[in-house]
Amino acid sequence: MMRRLLCILLLVVAGAASAADNLRPFVSGSMAQIQEEYAGKPFVMFLWSLTCTYCPTELEMLGKFKWQHPELNLVLIATDTPEDRPEIVSHLAGYGLSEIESNWVFAEDMPERLRFEIDRRWYGEVPRTYFYDQAHERLVKTGLVGEAFVKKWLTLVSMNTPSTGK
């Protein structure tokens, strides 16, 4: 019986790992690529780390929120390293975020360059969340944000989205 449970657990973990094969390396130029992918669209960019105490709370909230609001464009960037990929993938799967199209992990020797590319005033503290509207004007929050704030922001950007008549 115990052996059977272990086999099932391994299959679940292996399935979760393969589900997050979309984890992309965040390198110089990736920020411009993200902004281009979401040109004219609002999105939330969440920076997190495996060692962050508060990040699991936000990842859990974002996973539930994304499930309830599939229209939310969500970008997740782990500030860890590609060597942490198995653990990153496991975390994302655990919060229902492995299917997010825009999952990234820092992948350069000098993370300071990547932080500077994202935000010249950011020194690496996480969790850090960027709320980009349609014009890519951004609102920055460090620390816990919470579902109520995300709902309010999503309502505001939805009200400012022009109707396409579709």
TrEMBL record:
<dbReference type="InterPro" id="IPR036249">
    <property type="entry name" value="Thioredoxin-like_sf"/>
</dbReference>
<feature type="signal peptide">
    <location>
        <begin position="1"/>
        <end position="19"/>
    </location>
</feature>
<protein>
    <submittedName>
        <fullName>AhpC/TSA family protein</fullName>
    </submittedName>
</protein>
<keyword id="KW-0732">Signal</keyword>
